[in-house]
Amino acid sequence: MLQKVLQALEETQGPVSLDELSRQLELDVGVLEGMIDFWVRKGKLKDSRLAACAGGCGNCNPGAQGCTFDRGRPRSITLT
Amino acid sequence: MTSFALTPSLRMTYASPIEVELTRLSEALGHCPDLVARYPMRWLAIQLLEGDTLLQAEVERLGGSVASEALAASRMRLETHYGEDLDVAMVDQRYRFVHDLAAQALTRPKTPSLTMSDRVDRIVTNRWLGIPIFLGLMWVVFKLTTDVAAPFVDWIDAVLTGPVSHWITSLLSITGLSGGWLESLLIDGVIAGVGGVLVFIPVLFSLYFALAILEDSGYMARSAFVMDRLMHRLGLHGKSFLPMVVGFGCSVPAIYATRTLENERDRILTGLLVPFMSCSARLPVYVLVAAIFFPTMAGLVIFGLYLTGILVAIGLGMLLKRTLFGNELPTPFVIELPPYRLPTLRNIWHQMWERTSAFLQHAWTIILGTSMVVWLLLALPVSGEGSFADTDVDQSAFAAVSGVMTPVFAPLGFGSWETSGALLTGFVAKEVVVSTMIQVYNVPGAEEEEVGATTIGEDLLAIGGGFLSATGDALKALPSIIGINLAAEEDEQAPDGLTGAIRQGFDASSGGHGALAALAFLVFVLLYTPCMVAVAAARQEFGSRWMWVSIIGQFVIAWLAALIVFQGGRFFL
Fold it and tell me: InterPro entries in the record, alphabetically (chain B) (predicted)?
């Protein structure tokens, strides 16, 4: 089952939404999220949420939740 | 005493090789009382076989070499079955177990019912409708930032150039400091410079309002999804558009956001393209110049500039991908589309305030500092008979320094020292282009309307009345977003001091083609070298070589694009 997630991503042409992928794999989105998190921990997938702006940005005022502009960026997951 | 324990009627069992080792390892670990007292043995064995390093250290500490050797032996035996991926096999078996259990226990409809988000997505992310909807929403955003925010821009401008300047002059007069360089510094430096940028807070406020609604409602992720798909079809890395979405706010976090791209080449390519997305700092420049030269279609001009930025980025990306960066197939990826929801006032306000306060912080540091340096250079005479803070700006040190760049911009129609100087200071921060223009085009006495002596109470009443009037005008401007004009047509007004001076300046430098030169100037501002903070971010992320490529490359592209606009426009007009 876990391998199917990687395989589906490898075979996908272009960006795919999490919902689309869950329908394709016939899995609940919650289950798929768990599988994705596992592969992220294993280093096979990369989650954009874990690569936040860490620069000394003179133009923004990073609050407790990080850069205010960066928070508008949608989350994405990619094969490494 | 009787104790009751809830025991699961169904027990999760792994494949037999794993079960055998789990039993062996549990027994070995069971000889250590410290471990038995702290952990359930089967659970501990599972965690250890899956490679939990923290627990492994704990077992070594409490269980000694016997436990560690038992673990190593179990792992070695299982590796003959599963290789390095023992943890993958174990987690996979758990997922299978839960999946099978759920399949037996749950009855699902053959065709899952569509949620509201699914239904909306069928339209919003539709292959053919997605991009027109995205462009339509962008249009609404820019109408909001120009037409609806304009009355508040005028109101703040009137407050700063009227009562606030008046109060400062009066205060200096009371303290016996009027008429000197200090008054010039405060009025021509701070008020004209920082105030000139603060005037555009309503513009940024409405931009951040629109962005907050798009983000909070869940649409922003869809826009990235739709644009990604387009970019993917064009052979670009679709994921590149995700940092670009951030670039509409600020280029700096957008450059850092390229870290999400796994391939070094894609990261650099996206980093080079991100600054073409028009950041919010450039918006005040567009609003100022578009309002002067294209008052009836400022929204359209600004919308066109944002679109130009996207098209240039895509076009350049395709060119670089086919040349310098190789034509590898883009890596597919998953994007999370959050469910649509009604934006909350609290969230919208929070985002608007956070972003606007970041801008204010910027205004009181970088913009204030640059405005004072510009004032100092404008106050220093290098020719003529003027004295410090009492010299013709044409004869100032700033005019002399900026004049060096004038020949570079002459073919673009804006080869005057005023615009050259504004563009030079724009390297510090893009908002500074506005503050410098207001300082250099400042016509003494033209901004301050001659009014009779007023009391503070009367000033405050006028400020309050002006705000109410601006609110009324903004409400009347709202229907203009969908093409209904409720505002009374205003007679063509004679340009005020600043507007007139800027018009005259562009007319003079372009041989009478002021509007065309202004359009070329806007295109140049859109595309030219990013601000120094963005440049520093590019250096940190991609190294000095690519930083210079970005600085020089963008300057050349901006110059060529402005040349095409101005010279091409002259050819056809």
Answer: Fe2_transport_prot-B, Fe2_transport_prot_B_C, FeoB_Cyto, FeoB_GTPase, Gate_dom
Token look-up 């627990």 returns B55
Shortest distance, CA B95 to any CA of chain A (angstroms):
7
Nearest to A25 by CA among A52, A46, A2: A2
Asked if residue A64 is part of any domain, the answer here is no
List of chain A residues whose C-beta atoms are within 8 Å of the C-beta of residue B335: 15-18, 74-77
B102-111, B159-168, B557-566: the lowest-pLDDT one: B102-111
B253 chain-A contacts, CB cut-off 8 A: 53, 55, 57, 60, 67, 69-70
Tokens 């405060």 -> residue: B186
Among B517, B522, B481, B515, residue whose Cα is nearest residue B278: B522
Among B217-226, B340-349, B438-447, B549-558, where is mean pLDDT lowest?
A: B438-447
Instruction: For chain A, say whether B221 makes contact (Cβ under 8 Å).
Output: yes
Residue A11: give its domain's CATH number.
1.10.10
What distances in angstroms separate CA B188 from CA B195, B200, B371, B403, B428, one per listed residue?
10, 18, 9, 21, 20
Residue-wise over B467-497: b if at least 16 C-beta within 10 A, else e? Answer: eeebeebbebbeebbeeeeeeeeeeeeeeeb
**Does B253 contact A at CB distance below 8 Å?**
yes
Q: Which residues contact B118 (CB under 8 A, 6 or more apart)?
A: A19
Complex-level ipTM: 0.81
pLDDT per residue as tens digits for the range B107-155: 877 777 778 888 888 899 888 898 899 888 888 887 787 778 888 888 8
Report the domain count for chain A: 1
Tens-digit pLDDT profile for residues B484-542: 665 555 555 555 678 889 999 999 999 999 999 999 999 999 999 988 888 888 888 88
A79 strand-pairing partners: A45
Q: Is residue A66 part of a domain?
A: no
Which residues in chain B (487-526) have CB-CB distances under 8 A to chain A? none
Q: Crossing angle of helices B544-572/B264-273, nearest 10°?
A: 40
Residue B516 contacts residue B570 (beta carbons within 8 Å):
yes
Within 13 Å, how many C-alpha atoms sit on residue B235's CB side? Answer: 13
Domain architecture of chain B: domains with CATH: 16-105 (1.10.287.1770), 130-450+504-572 (no CATH)
Name the residue facing A15 among B118, B232, B246 (closest C-beta). B232
Query: Are B75 and B85 in contact, with CB atoms under 8 Å apart?
Result: no
Interface contact B355, partner A, CB < 8 A: yes
Q: Are B404 and B221 in contact (CB under 8 A)?
A: no
The residue range of the domain holding A29 is 2-51+71-79
Residue of A nearest to B258 (CA): A51
